[in-house]
Amino acid sequence: MRARTAQAIIYVLDVLAVPAVAYCIYDSVRVQRAIAAAAPEIGFDSGIYYLLLASVMWVLTAIQIVGLKRGAAFRPHRAGMVLVIWFVTCLSLANVLPYLITRTLEAAGYQPCRDTREVSRVSRGVGRVYRLNGCEDHSVAPIGSVRRSQGSPPLNDHAPG
Asked: Does the keyword Membrane apply (predicted)?
């Protein structure tokens, strides 16, 4: 691959990382505003915060630019350390932010309910609906329970499958 093509690909990935990180910020602000407005239902997906890992591309680009400008004075072993620290920080944030937001929702009186409109998960995390007045609606079920039809035997949510 030519150097110019590789550089163009890196810049495209940098640009694609912007909306991924912006969406994480937007979702956090959206949930906080919904709590402040006492919305009756707030959707929350804890898996989207792994999109923060896309920002690792920014660090790679910064390391490349610094390496090109400094030439022989560039210390690549420090660049690797910076990259690892940024990666671990993003991974930590992807786990801690959903925990903090979940605690904030529960402290505000919201109850976690399964979003039964969500058929399957292809990403890490849990898609839930947080309801202010519990899970009375038939489109959502409380966590730990499974809706069943009349006459069906009870189902165990935690059975090995």
From this structure: yes
- Domain residues for the domain of 28 are 3-108
> Is residue 58 domain-resident?
yes
Handedness of CA 79, 6, 4, 12 (dihedral sign): negative
Q: What tokens does 88 get? A: 């671990």
Q: Which helix (H) or strand (E) holds 28?
A: helix 3-36
User: How many distinct structural domains can be found in the chain?
Assistant: 1
What's the chain's Rg over C-alpha atoms? Answer: 22
- Whether 73 maps to a domain, the answer reads yes
Contact 60, 79 (CB under 8 A): no
Q: Look up residue 144 and give its DSSP letter.
A: T
- Give dist(CA 112, CA 134) in Å, integer: 8
Q: What is the pLDDT of residues 39-70, one digit of tens each?
A: 999 988 888 999 999 999 999 898 888 877 77
In angstroms, the CA 73 to CA 75 distance is 6
Q: Is 90 exceeded by the pLDDT of residue 151?
A: no
Using a pLDDT cut of 90, give the percent of the chain over it.
43
